[in-house]
Amino acid sequence: MRLLKSFVADVTGATAIEYGLIAAIMSVALITGYGTFTGALVNVFDTVSNEIKP
């Protein structure tokens, strides 16, 4: 019973899981932003390329 109480009172694992979830959410946001940025940059270069053509 003492082992169960100490296991329930231990919150260090919960903190590690929270940090893992934050890192996962940030990585998904960064990957999504990178994809959007890449698409916008390609559009800019296509526009410039079309305007330069004689």
Textual characterization of the structure:
It is rod-shaped and about 85 Å long. The chain starts with a helix and ends with a helix. The chain has helices at 2-9, 12-52. It has 2 helices and no strands.
Which percent band covers the strand fraction? under 5%
Straight-line N-to-C gap: 83 Å
Secondary structure: helix percent: over 70%
Number of helices: 2
Q: Write the element-wise H/E pattern from the N-terminal end onward.
A: HH
Low-pLDDT parts are none
Radius of gyration: 24 Å
Could you tell me the number of beta strands?
0
Mean pLDDT: 86
Q: What coarse outline follows from CA principal-axis ratios?
A: rod-shaped
Largest sheet: none
| Structural class category | mainly alpha
Q: SSE layout and pairings?
A:
Blueprint: H1 2-9, H2 12-52
Which characteristics define this entry?
54 residues; 91% helix; rod-shaped; 2 helices; 0% strand; mainly alpha
Please give a quick description of this structure.
With 54 residues, this protein is mostly helical. It has helices at residues 2-9, 12-52.
